[in-house]
Specification:
Layout (H helix, E strand, L loop, with lengths): L5 H5 L1 H7 L4 H9 L3 H15 L7 H7 L3 H8 L5 H10 L4 H21 L5 E6 L9 E6 L6 H4 L8 H18 L4 E3 L5 E3 L2 E2 L5 H9 L10 H10 L10 H22 L16 H10 L6
Antiparallel strand pairs: 1-2, 3-4, 4-5
C-alpha cells in the first residue's frame, strides 16, 4: 500500500527541520504548530506503523520503544489537541520517526516544495493597433525569491532555521491574507503592507537567528514586531538582544490587555469636612437655649 504524500508535501520544510533540531527548539516549535502540521506528523506515524516506509533493523528496534505514542498519533478518534500534546510532551522520538521518512521520500518532497507556488501569468494587451500578434505574455512574480531560492544566501549553520522562518512567513501571508510581515520584489521588508526603506530580508533573518557584533540592519525593530504578530516562537530567535526585544513587546501587550480588563471601581463617597468660620460659630452659639442649662 503506497503512503499518502499530500500533507507531507505541504510541510516538507518543517518535517526536515524537526528531524534535525534540538529538543528545546522542537518543543518550542510544536507548541505553536498549525493543525495541518500536526496532521502531517500523525500521517508520518501512520505510514511507519503500516510498513509503508522502509526501516533498517536498528530503526525498527529504536522505534519499537515508542509504539504506544505512534499508535495514539495514528488514532483518528483522538482530538487534534491531544495528539499535539503527545508531540510536545513526548516528542523525543520525532527525529527517529522522520529521518527514514525523509530518506525514502526526500526527492519527492524536494520536488513538491519547488512546485508549491507558481508565478502568476498575465496576458497584457499593449495597444489596439491591428497586428498578427497584439498580445504578449508576461510572467510576474511578486517576490524577489521564494523561500527555497533565498536559502542559498544563508550560512550553512542557520539554513535549517532560516528555511522554517521563511516558510512560516510565506505560509502566513498566503493562508491568513495578513500583510504583517513579508518581503517585496526588491528584497525589502514589508511591515503591515509598507516597505521599510534600506531594509533587506536576508540581513534581517541572519540578524534574528545569530548574534553579530555591531550589526543592526535597517528595520530590525519592524521585523521583530512582525514576527511577534505571526506568533513566531521566541526559542528560535538566536540573537539574545532580539529575543529580549520580542519578549518585551509581548509583556507590553499583556500589561495593556490587563489594564483594559481591570474593572472600573466606584468612586468612594468622602464625607465633606466642614470648616467652621467665626460667623457660623456665632450663629450656633445664639441657637443654644441657655435658659435650660
Amino acid at each position: 500500500m503506497a503512503p499518502s504524500f499530500r500533507r507531507l508535501r505541504n510541510h516538507a520544510g518543517e518535517i526536515e527541520f524537526l528531524s534535525k533540531c534540538s529538543p528545546r527548539q522542537r518543543k518550542a516549535f510544536l507548541k505553536h504548530a498549525y493543525p495541518e502540521l500536526v496532521a502531517s506528523l500523525c500521517e508520518c506515524a501512520s505510514n511507519v506503523l503500516k510498513g509503508n516506509v522502509p526501516l533498517s533493523r536498528a530503526q525498527k528496534s529504536k522505534l519499537s520503544q515508542y509504539k504506544k505514542h505512534l499508535r495514539d498519533l495514528s488514532d483518528n478518534r483522538l482530538s487534534n489537541k491531544k495528539r499535539k500534546d503527545i508531540l510536545v510532551q513526548r516528542g523525543g522520538f520525532l527525529s527517529l520517526l522522520l529521518k527514514p521518512i525523509i530518506q525514502s521520500l526526500g526527492g519527492m518532497l524536494l520536488g513538491a516544495k519547488k512546485t508549491l507556488r507558481e508565478p502568476i501569468e498575465l496576458r497584457v494587451a499593449h495597444d489596439s493597433t491591428p497586428s498578427t500578434n497584439n498580445q504578449t505574455t508576461d510572467t510576474i512574480s511578486g517576490k524577489i525569491s521564494e523561500p527555497d531560492d533565498l536559502i542559498h544566501n544563508f550560512p550553512k549553520s542557520i539554513k535549517g532555521k532560516a528555511k522554517v522562518l521563511l516558510e512560516r512567513i510565506d505560509r502566513h501571508c498566503s493562508t491568513q491574507n495578513d500583510p504583517t510581515v513579508d518581503w517585496n520584489s526588491k528584497g525589502e521588508l514589508l511591515y503591515k503592507g509598507e516597505a521599510v526603506p534600506g531594509s533587506n530580508i536576508t540581513d534581517l533573518i541572519i540578524d534574528v537567528l545569530q548574534s553579530r557584533k555591531d550589526f543592526n540592519p535597517n528595520g530590525w525593530q519592524h521585523f521583530i514586531s512582525g514576527l511577534k504578530g505571526i506568533n513566531f516562537p521566541e526559542a528560535f530567535v538566536g540573537n539574545l538582544k532580539r529575543r529580549q526585544f520580542m519578549h518585551q513587546l509581548k509583556e507590553k501587550d499583556k500589561s495593556e490587555l490587563f489594564v483594559k480588563e481591570l474593572p472600573t471601581l466606584p468612586r468612594s463617597k468622602r464625607r465633606r469636612k466642614v470648616i467652621s468660620s467665626p460667623a457660623s460659630l456665632q450663629k450656633r452659639l445664639k441657637s443654644i437655649r441657655w435658659d435650660i442649662l
